Amino acid sequence: MGIEDYGGGQVPQSDVLVVTANDVPGYRVERVIGEVFGLTVRSRHLGSQIGAGLKSLVGGELRGLTKTLVETRNQAMERLVEQARARGANGVLAFRFDVTEAADVGTEVCAYGTAVVLARE
């Protein structure tokens, strides 16, 4: 079975299909492996914090912080996929992100979901 032939929109860039849904049309869950997660904590650069503080006075997007958050989320997701793959999964269902402040020094991003083995119906 190849996940790369999944016909539901964009072709996955990985051998592990990650979806926010609880199932994948055309596939059945053959085995539930369990929870997997990818975690990263990023500190804020002092210059970007000062710039963000000034920008918040006038309004608008905080582009530097947006870029950092996107990179952080991508890293957390990559770690989730690595963990799922290492445990023998080819899919992650019910995928979510959780973002929290980490002791006022940075942002913690956790990507999590349920690792499964998917088989074509």
UniProtKB/TrEMBL annotation:
Transmembrane segments: none annotated. Coiled coil: none annotated. It comes from the Bacteria. Pfam families: YbjQ_1. Belongs to the UPF0145 family. This is UPF0145 protein SGLAU_18745. It comes from Streptomyces glaucescens.
